[in-house]
Amino acid sequence: MSLRYALLALLTVEPMTGYDLYKEFESSVGHVWHAPDSQIYPELRRMEKDGLLEGEEISWGQRGKKRQYHITEAGVEAFRTWMNGTLDYARVRDPAHLKAAYLEWAEPDAAREQILAHIRHHTELLQQWHDKVREIEEGGSPMLNRRLAKVPPEQRRKTAAFKKFTYEGLIAQAEQEIAWANRGLALIDELYTEPETADARKS
User: Fold this and answer.
1) pLDDT per residue over 109-160, tens digit each?
2) Which one of 18, 31, 106, 130 is at 20 to 30 Å from 49 when CA atoms are compared?
3) Rg value, the chain, Cα
4) Distance (Å, rounded) from C-alpha 116 to C-alpha 122?
5) Cα–Cα distance, 32 to 26 (Å, whole number)
């Protein structure tokens, strides 16, 4: 159900088509809740049926039409209710840590490469999150700027601060994963040191 509330969050800024929502989703809330367009479009139809959105046909290009969605009062209230409630945390599904628990089945070089891939992945994310924080600090986030234009001036500091707080949490997660993976590399080196090599050093 979090997809529904992520879409409502975007629509509190301005009306959007499904395509616009998909693009904004990918560049903003998609960083904390991934959803492909194959999930977004059906959810928008369900939300309209449930009275959270109103859709209207708008012109697109010379002859085309697209459906643009507006959040309703019921949608605003549903989003506010969700924001004021506590989460029911889902059980963890973490393939990287699952595989790490059984790396003794992997060849040493394969185990090492999997750990290095984990480091590369989270290093890329770390740079991405730092870029997002810098965007917020420098006022260069288009979506945030549109949101700030919609809120009263006295609310703008809070709006920006919580967006930055979110990315800081993602930075901390990425740094922790990199540190954990580096410990994994050290563990592989320790476990696969040949005994005879160690004995040779002693003699």
Assistant:
1) 999 999 999 999 999 999 999 999 999 999 998 889 988 998 899 999 999 9
2) 31
3) 23
4) 10
5) 10
- Are the CB atoms for 168 and 134 separated by under 8 Å? no
Report the SS3 class of residue 64: strand
Paired tokens of 28: 């903003």
**CA–CA distance, 160 with 168 (Å, rounded to integer):** 12
**Structure-token match 């002859």, residue found:** 63
pTM value > 0.90 = no
Burial class from Cβ neighbours inside 10 Å (0-12, 13-18, 19+) for residue 11 reads: buried
- What's the mean pLDDT in 53-78? 91
Query: Helix crossing, 37-49 with 18-27: angle to 10°?
Result: 120
Q: What are phi and psi of 3, to 5 degrees?
A: -55, -40
